Amino acid sequence: MLRKYNLKKNAAFLYSIGPHPTTKSCIESLNIPKSQWYRLTKSNFFSPFSELIRSLILAFKIPKYKYYFIEGSIALQIAFFKKFLRREKPIVISRINDDLFNMDLKKNPIKKFWYKTLINTLDGAICIANLVQQEAKKIRPDLPTGIARSFLHNDDYFFNIKPNFNSKKILFVGHYRPHKGVENLIKGFLLFHKENPEYEFILVGRRIPSLRKKFPQKCLHFNDAVFDIVKYSNLFADAKAYLHCPVYEAGPRTIFESMACGVIPLVSEMAGNKDLLVDVDKKLILKNNNPEIIAKGLDYVINLPLKKLKNHSKLCRAVIEKGYTFKKGTDTFKKQVTLLLESIENKK
User: Fold this and answer.
1) Residue partners of 298: CB distance under 8 A and separation at least 6
2) Could you tell me if 175 and 263 lie in one domain?
3) Most C-beta atoms within 10 A of its C-beta, which of 47, 176, 284, 290?
4) CA 249 to chain centre
């Protein structure tokens, strides 16, 4: 059904810093040639206006296309300049895997105004979680949206992991960034650790080792990012539970990976993929990332009877096998793009 839009000829992909592996797979599934992928490279030159200047230059440099697929608010600036300075009339669709629609995180009124301006550039949005779509509707009720979640990459590596139900380790994987709430995870674990001194907390990701000085406790293990898929998937093999309670995160892929391994995740309401756990156990979804609440959540997970723990593990894996493998994920994305294009073009 996508053939009639001839995306191979009529579409371009605009992105910066990446693209994210899942977005990359999604765009590849649309058969947009790599020669029509345009990256806005990050620079500190004239910071904080460098991206704005570079976006303006690229808006005039990149040829005219009928469709632009976007990843990230920085790259969306290119489409903004194309529409409102070059007077092009393309259809602009973004895969929303960031906080573009979350205005609560944008305290600066100028930044908030600029983001709302960029949002008005969009003709459609593919949201990676219900949470993202709900926020989109608050900001732009008229914006056509669809949901195509993130999905598993390298399926077999994760499905072949055998969870260790006797483990005394809790795992977190992610970069050290404010929105991930990493420090609250540590504080919550340390509260939990007072009553459960045999447990350790393993944290893995970029800039994670920088936390060692602030949190010198021996029960905490800070490791840099792991890129080898075998070593990476094996991180989950020795974890009793996976902890991911962000301040806000559109759709952490690590939750899919944890569930595919049969390792039970403990997440917060502001994790975009939280609803994957509704049919497993609603108590695994915490109302926020307050350390006391995290500590109680961890206590709940480690005290699950073995039979229930194994059943939760099977349910987690079944959820991913049913709808979030690589093939099913890319197929869902293509279907949502088709529906979105039909909806947008029928309006015009």
Assistant:
1) 170, 188, 189, 192, 196, 241, 243, 266
2) yes
3) 284
4) 6
Q: CA 23 to CA 95: how far, in whole Å?
A: 7
| Structural domain that includes position 286 | 155-323
Residues 267 and 168 placed together within one structural domain of the fold: yes
Q: What is the mean pLDDT of the chain?
A: 94
Same domain for 61 and 88? Answer: yes
Q: Which of 317, 343, 203, 335 is nearest to 264 (CA)?
A: 317
Report the alpha-carbon distance of residue 69 to residue 79 in Å, rounded.
Answer: 9
Q: Which helix (H) or strand (E) holds 315?
A: helix 306-323
CATH number at residue 13: 3.40.50.2000
47 in the same domain as 91: yes
Same domain, 203 and 292: yes
Does 126 share its domain with 185? no
Q: What is the DSSP letter of 293?
A: H
Q: What is the pLDDT of residues 96-152, one digit of tens each?
A: 999 999 988 788 898 899 999 999 999 999 999 999 999 999 999 999 999 999 999
Report DSSP state, residue 42: -
pTM over 0.70: yes
Total count of domains within the chain: 2
The answer to whether 40 touches 74, Cβ cutoff 8 Å, is yes
- Residue 339 near residue 147, CB atoms below 8 Å: no
- Are 32 and 7 in contact, with CB atoms under 8 Å apart? yes
List for the chain the helix, strand, coil content (%; round to 5). 50, 15, 35
* Residue 131, Cβ density class (10 Å: 0-12 exposed, 13-18 middle, ≥19 buried): buried
